[in-house]
Amino acid sequence: MRIGEASRVSGVSARSLRYYEDEGLIIPGRCGNGYRDYCRSTIDRVRVIRSLLESGLPVRLIKDVLPHLTAEPDADPGAVCAEFLREVQRYRDRLAGRIAVLSDQQAALDAYLREARRADR
Fold first, then answer.
1. Which domains can be identified in the chain, with CATH numbers?
2. CA 20 to 30 Å from 62, out of 50, 78, 98, 113?
3. Is the separation of the CB atoms in 64 and 24 below 8 Å?
4. Looking at beta carbons, which pairs linking 49-54 to residues 24 or more positions away fall under 8 Å?
5. Cα-Cα end-to-end distance for the chain
């Protein structure tokens, strides 16, 4: 299927499909006229990519794990290496740290607004 239909079927914009290709996450086939040709397995891979991106993982980590997640059915299920899991944990911990900082900032702003409202009375 061509890019428009692949976009519709996968729920991902044509621009995102091109980006995934540029990043080496997918490799669509090519028709004789140069148009991209997306097969069912590529669409399935796009859905996995989208899911991982929505979970907050950066493209750099997705590139590392994607070959293991979309491997053949007889592939070793333990192929997702411990280093990748440590990398995801570090990413999650950095995210938790940023959330904590933002929560503290929000609490400080809430306190400021409470005080400002009391002063206006």
1. 1-56 (1.10.1660.10)
2. 98
3. no
4. 49/20, 49/25, 50/10, 50/11, 50/12, 50/16
5. 66
Tell me how far apart the alpha carbons of residues 48 and 52 are, in angstroms, rounded to a whole number: 6
Say what the pLDDT of residue 80 is: 64
Question: What SS3 class is residue 93?
Answer: helix
Inform me whether the pLDDT recorded for 79 exceeds 80.
Answer: no
d(CA 121, CA 107): 22
pLDDT number for residue 74: 57
Helix, strand or coil, per DSSP, at residue 36: strand
Q: Are 2 and 10 in contact (CB under 8 A)?
A: no
Residue of 9, 65, 68 lying closest to 38 (CA atoms): 9
Q: What is the pTM of this model?
A: 0.69
Other beta carbons within 10 angstroms of residue 71's beta carbon come to 13
DSSP tag of 78? G
Which pLDDT tens digit goes with each residue over 29-58?
Answer: 999 998 899 999 999 999 999 998 998 888
